[in-house]
Amino acid sequence: MRLKTSISSVELAKKLNGRLIGAPDLVLHGINEIHHVEEGDITFVDFHKYYDKALSSAASLILIDQEREAPAGKALIVLAAPFVAYNQLVREQRPLRPLRVAIDPSAKIGPGTIIEPGAVIGPDVQIGEDCHIHANVVIGEGCTVGNRVVVQANTVIGGEAFYFKRTSAGMTPWRSGGSVELQDDVELGPGCSIARGISSTTTIGCGSKLDALVQIGHDCKIGAHCLLAAQVGIAGNTTLGDWCILQGQVGVAQNLNIGERTIILAKSGVGKDTEAGVEYFGIPAQRARSAFRDLAMLRRLKNE
Q1: Are 26 and 13 in contact (CB under 8 A)?
Q2: What is the pLDDT of residue 35?
Q3: Summary count for the chain: helices (H), strands (E)
Q4: How far, in Å, CA of 123 to CA of 99, rounded?
Q5: Residue numbers annotated as active site
Q6: What does the angle CA 15 – CA 91 – CA 39 come to, to the nearest 5 degrees?
Q7: pLDDT reported for residue 99
Q8: pLDDT grade, residue 303 (50/70/90)?
Q9: Long-range contacts of range 88-96, CB-CB < 8 Å, 24 or more positions apart?
Q10: From CA 267, how far away is CA 300, in angstroms rounded?
Q11: Strands 279-281 and 286-287
């Protein structure tokens, strides 16, 4: 997520009333959670599992709840509640903009595109040429739709991420500062849900086709020419390579890499990265030939 205006590390420390450790003159132009940081980004850490990962990441400034030595060329801001500060920065950069009209005046819609009655197009949405947006579709703020894209009825593009910080008071939602991009020739069936990224862009690649009731989590990257059958669910920050096929009711866990041309058979549950060009089946999913062999052995045992 890019900041509207760059800020220096010393200015940010003053703004947050935190203690600055390290370089005071860094120029910061982005804010991202740990999985998507780049040089010039702000991120945060407040959990022991991620301290080393955050400090060694590409982020230039880390909001942190304990004093550490700042890596060379980076800065830390020590705060009692880094997540609260991070979340507030995102909210400042992307404040709530309630929808007031069906199609926001700031939306840009290309020639030849059909917008059916009941569709809602949010602020700063960009839709390309020759698209067909069916009735009751919702496209949220800042989302991008390429050319020749079809979105069937009741699909929601750019809803807030299902992502929460566990605290003593309960579950606090992260503010979603990212977006959604549907590339050229994408088709989405009715009732799909494509969550915006927490800090990056959830992407559906060129030519990919999603059946009815498919759910794509925050920050996912779906490759080109993928086929996702009905009721597939993919959890946040997972990447699918090009030409993957996921049959009906497949579930894929978060933070995975699914190799290109992977085929996952119906009702499988994927909890680990997959190899390119391999067919998987089962819960937990394994190579389909191994899964079928195991099933055959169980049947023989039953008959003995």
Answers
A1: no
A2: 87
A3: 4, 34
A4: 8
A5: 218
A6: 70
A7: 87
A8: low
A9: 89/31, 89/42, 90/1, 90/31, 90/174, 90/175, 90/176, 90/177, 90/199, 91/175, 93/1, 93/3, 93/4, 93/31, 93/177, 94/1, 94/141, 94/175, 94/176, 94/177
A10: 23
A11: antiparallel
pTM of the model: 0.92
Task: Indicate the average pLDDT of the chain.
Answer: 95
Exposure letters 209-233 (e unless 16+ CB within 10 A, then b): bbbbbbbbbbbbbbbbbbbbbbbbb
Where in 129-258 does DSSP place strands (E)? 132-133, 138-139, 144-145, 150-151, 156-159, 164-167, 170-173, 179-182, 187-188, 193-195, 201-204, 209-210, 215-216, 221-222, 227-228, 233-234, 239-240, 245-246, 251-252, 257-258
Q: In which residue are the tokens 């003053």 written?
A: 14
> At CA 21, angle to CA 20 and CA 22, rounded to 5?
120
pLDDT at res. 207: 98
pLDDT, tens digit (0-9, with 9 covering 90-100), for 150-203: 999 999 999 999 999 888 889 999 999 999 999 999 999 999 999 999 999 999
Element holding 16 (H helix, E strand): helix 9-16
pLDDT for 79 equals: 96
* All residues at 6 or more sequence positions from 193 whose CB lies less than 8 Å from its CB, including other chains: 155, 156, 159, 214, 215, 216
Scanning the structure block, which residue is given the tokens 């069906």?
A: 102
- Cβ atoms of residues 236 and 218 within 8 Å: yes
Q: By the 8 A CB rule, do 226 and 242 touch?
A: yes
Q: Are 74 and 23 in contact (CB under 8 A)?
A: yes
- List pLDDT tens digits, range 121-138: 999 999 999 999 999 999
d(CA 86, CA 115): 37
